[in-house]
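Worked example 3 (structure in, sequence out).
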């Protein structure tokens, strides 16, 4: 609602609101996912506002909203800098459907991304270098994100030396999960982390 010069309230379209108001509405943790619904409404003017202004999107499983695939509209958000996709539900981390589509979306995100938190099973396999169990399918070079500060990838166990050495030099915060022993992590992985690192969480999930 907006008020006229006489103080009377009337309904208004979202497209009549200043872009900064629309983005402010979408900036809260429990409203950021609504940018997808607004995009799917198909209003060209509103979609233009989203393309040019949205910087943060968080998609989480809830009772009313289930993340099953990565939406292609993420590729259109030119100023997107922070993305959180969380498929965990009832303490179980589910995979994302349509891996090829997920790779297409991630590969099209802005290179200036600062936060990538992809909390769904097998998310590590979207990125190269990737020789996990001989999997040679296309993947996204992690080093393309030249401004990345915070990285978290699912509950995968393949943060090996080949992957770690390709991490962007800007990385400061990471959640590292590995299937190797603590000794291997210390000797082969930690020494390869960027010197910019300030916060590291390591989870050891068994041994090779």
């Amino acid at each position: 609602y907006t008020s006229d010069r006489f103080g009377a309230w009337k309904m208004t379209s979202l497209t009549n609101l200043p872009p900064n108001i629309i983005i402010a509405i979408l900036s809260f943790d429990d409203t950021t996912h609504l940018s997808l619904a607004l995009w799917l409404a198909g209003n060209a003017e509103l979609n233009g506002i989203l393309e040019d202004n949205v910087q943060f999107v968080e998609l989480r499983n809830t009772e009313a909203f289930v993340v099953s695939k990565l939406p292609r509209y993420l590729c259109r958000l030119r100023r997107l800098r922070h993305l959180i996709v969380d498929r965990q539900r009832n303490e179980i981390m589910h995979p994302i459907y349509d891996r090829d589509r997920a790779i297409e979306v991630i590969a099209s995100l802005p290179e200036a991304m600062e936060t990538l938190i992809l909390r769904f099973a097998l998310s590590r396999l979207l990125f190269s270098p990737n020789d996990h169990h001989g999997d040679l399918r296309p993947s996204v070079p992690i080093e393309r994100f030249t401004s990345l500060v915070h990285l978290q990838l699912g509950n995968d166990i393949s943060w090996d030396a080949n992957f770690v050495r390709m991490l962007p030099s800007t990385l400061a915060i990471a959640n590292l999960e590995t299937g190797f022993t603590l000794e291997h992590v210390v000797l082969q992985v930690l020494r390869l982390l960027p010197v910019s690192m300030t916060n590291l969480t390591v989870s050891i999930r068994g041994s090779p």
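Notes: Helices lie at 19-25, 34-40, 44-53, 99-107, 161-164, 182-189. The first strand starts at residue 2 and ends at 3.
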